[in-house]
Specification:
2 copies of one chain form a homodimer.
Chain A (H helix, E strand, L loop, with lengths): L5 E5 L5 H10 L5 E5 L11 H18 L3 E4 L2 H14 L4 E3 L1 H11 L4 E6 L1 H6 L1 H9 L4 E6 L3 H6 L6 H17 L3 E4 L8 H8 L4 E4 H15 L6 H6 L4 E5 L3 H12 L6 E7 L2 E4 L4
Parallel strand pairs in A: 1-2, 1-3, 2-9, 3-4, 5-6, 5-7, 7-8, 9-10
Antiparallel strand pairs in A: 10-11
Helix pairs in contact in A: 1-10, 2-3, 4-6, 4-10, 8-9
């Protein structure tokens, strides 16, 4: 069991920021990543549809064999974490609880900002979880639909991007939040721009970093961690799948993870089932 | 089950820094704290003796009824966490794994310092856990036996304290660590002095903060969290026990937790069993 990889699912590339944290914090662990780029972005889809897609990806990874599942997608975790966790025998982790906990821990003025896709913000998941834990906190949420395309088109340093950032974040800055949760796995790529606009005194929470912290705690808790000695005997492997273009996914993954020789396998979706494409 | 308190055990007052984080991060949760001040400090005792004392305290809290146990004492966790966790049906959390994970996450130059009591440092628990997870990290450990008495005697701002701090920490500073784990729950009280000597660029890890983050994750994971609504219906309670002087314990707890009206019940140790003292 311990030797199995950790599974990561995401609507596309965004979850690679979470995987990157896993490579850093958990260097002995193998991973298997599936990005549903053919149907991304999820942020504008209905909850029912998102839930169906998350189940399809979960089933694909279960067949491959995983010891833990990370829903490395805020939109997907908001829609489906509870039911996937209730159904699977292995631990299932989403990005929203970890980000919410970090926000509660970090804020000193009890004013927290949340940014995410429209689906994540409409689900109200962050605010609900934060308020369940601490009803005193004020939560200010803002959907930032243009941030994902900006990141996917690598427009982070274009001058007009700073205007987009300022337009979205001005209400949160005016509200005086001292903590801002990057509630979408794409947003860490915009961290410098967001930090510049919000000012150095605002703490940015990267839900991906916090999620891997939780994964690490659960691996320890369930005695599922691979040790450095295990990794020396059998080096960890990292496998990438996408429902979209393998070449495009590989370009992103190579750049974001800094791994030039990474290979991505394509998958096909037939009915409700995701299959590995036999050859490319 | 959800309504039960979280149990905290410690050799004395030190674990109150962990409890304080719980009050901050988990304001809806009840707690029950037992400090073994009659037999503190543990840091200079044998592992077998520490293990026995931890079991006695665990049994005392189990009888009271708890939903989770926190060994809020590095020395105690190093000696007994694994066997207590293996024996209890409820989740058991120590302070060492959480601090180790935070160090791995924080360091950028792969040089980590650990300070703690002689028993914690001799157990090599931090270095072992860190190396299991990442064999590349260099770990520099230093026992600081005088820090606990300095804190318990409230000598933090005495001029000679800075000399003691400098004497202990010079080897770690010279080794160039960029991350220093406060591997004893008393040490956060010396944080300003330690930060001043190490310099602002060194990150100090408070194992207590990280531990409550893990507690929070496990409460979520096992669906054991009390919500703000639960807390409104039945406000959380906080109960304090000590094997030593209730009056002395109350003074410390009132000061450290900022709660002037806190009441502490005394316990007696008879044979291998800790009993609540009938009256005081």
């Amino acid at each position: 069991m311990k030797e199995l990889p950790i599974g990561f699912i995401d609507s596309g590339f965004g979850g690679l920021t979470v995987l990157k944290q896993s490579l850093k914090q958990l260097p002995n662990e193998s991973s298997i990543y599936l990005g549903d780029s053919a149907r991304a972005p999820y942020g504008v889809r209905s909850v029912d549809e998102i839930r169906r897609f998350i189940w399809q990806m979960t089933n694909f990874l279960r067949e491959k064999g995983i010891k833990m599942l990370v829903i490395a997608c805020n939109t997907g975790a908001a829609a489906a974490l509870d039911e996937i966790r209730a159904s699977l025998a292995i631990p299932v982790v989403g990005v929203i609880h970890a980000g919410s906990r970090a926000a509660i821990l970090t804020t000193e003025n009890n004013k927290v900002g949340i940014i995410g896709t429209p689906a994540t913000i409409n689900s109200d998941s962050y605010a609900r979880i934060i308020h369940e834990k601490n009803a005193q906190l004020q939560v200010f949420s803002k959907a930032c639909p243009d941030f994902v395309p900006i990141v996917e088109e690598n427009q982070m340093v274009q001058p007009e991007t700073m205007n987009t950032v300022a337009n979205y974040l001005a209400p949160l800055k005016n509200a005086g939040v001292d903590t801002l949760v990057l509630g979408c796995t794409h947003y860490p790529h915009l961290r410098p721009q967001i930090q510049e606009f919000m000012g150095p005194e605002v703490e940015l929470i990267d839900s991906g970093v916090e999620t891997i912290n939780e994964v690490s705690a659960l691996l320890d808790y369930f005695n599922l961690s691979r040790s450095a000695e295990d990794a020396q005997k059998m080096p960890p492997t990292h496998t990438y799948y996408t429902t979209g273009s393998g070449a495009k996914f590989a370009r992103f993954a190579q750049m974001w993870l800094g791994q030039p020789d990474l290979y991505v396998q394509e998958c096909k979706i037939k009915g409700e089932i995701i299959h590995e494409a036999s050859h490319r």
